């Protein structure tokens, strides 16, 4: 099979198209022909060498799959050849990721693809959708009538998080570039904050009459953890998806009884089943900002890292059409 193999940590030139054997299928596993995958920040973080102890080289990475079941292992009863499925493979799994024509996955991670989505659309939502669900539902426990500040509303996780928060009955504030304001508003954002021209702490105080928000979802890093207490209502929750090496001062968190959650998404069929119901009802939809063929995966990585495609700001996900 054709696969993108990471031969060394570093630049996009280390992502090489090669012919490799199709992985073996053991009991409880599925062999899936990958129709589409997508790029996440985790993918370029792995490529540049952020997690060298977890990724023995050479490696096939990638963390989104939409495809068709080709073969099933012993003991698999929920799926059969020909079924259309979507899922997030095991992160740092021993049988490789989704940058390949085939992927082997334990059946407990797999869900039937929503019939109203294309493979490209389904591949754009497995990891980001699962992340948004874990952040807002599992960790933040967002409730109807509460408010949330989503940093990076035009990004892969942000676009889904806005829609999910609205489906949960929340009031949504989000940061974005001015050129993205109309777009994120169309997803359900109640108010947008141009982070290049405004201080979001001051803007949240103005928009909430000084009351603050119940939840902050951090997809950008920087000083967000340190500054979040200044936008939180009492008992507010902060959920961050960013691994931040630099220490930050959280003394202000005591003043509002803040609660912090650090999320590295766990694969879980239950989250995908919940998202599938929302997708099939049209309450959330995947956002695809650019599409590349498998052989141009280096350009796809560059587009996501730079946040731009064809000279414009990137919206949503970068999708790879595999077969």
Characterization of this structure:
- With 323 residues, the chain is an alpha/beta fold.
- It has 2 domains: 2-124 and 286-321, Quinone Oxidoreductase, Chain A, domain 1 (Alpha-Beta Complex); 128-262, 3-Layer(aba) Sandwich (Rossmann fold), CATH 3.40.50.720.
- 26% of the residues lie in helices and 27% in strands.
- The protein has 10 helices and 17 strands.
- Strands 3, 4, 5, 6, 7, 14 and 17 form a 7-stranded mixed sheet that branches. A 6-stranded parallel sheet has the order 10-9-8-11-12-13, with helices on both faces.
- Strand 15 and strand 16 form a beta hairpin.
- Helix 3 packs across helix 4.
- The longest helix is centred in the middle third of the chain and has 14 residues, at 126-139.
- It is globular and about 60 Å long.
- The relative contact order is 0.16.
- The mean pLDDT is 95.
How many angstroms does the end-to-end distance come to? 11 Å
Low-confidence stretches are none
Order of helices and strands, N to C?
Answer: EEEHEEEEHHEHEHEHEHEHEHEHEEE
Percent in strands:
25-35%
* Number of β-strand runs: 17
Total count of helical runs of at least 4 residues: 10
> What number of structural domains do the residues give?
2
Apparent shape:
globular
Key descriptive features of the protein:
alpha/beta, 6-stranded parallel β-sheet, 323 residues, Quinone Oxidoreductase, Chain A, domain 1, 2 domains, globular, Rossmann fold
Question: What's this, in brief?
Answer:
26% of the residues lie in helices and 27% in strands. It is an alpha/beta fold. Helix 5 links the parallel strand 9 and strand 10 (191-194).
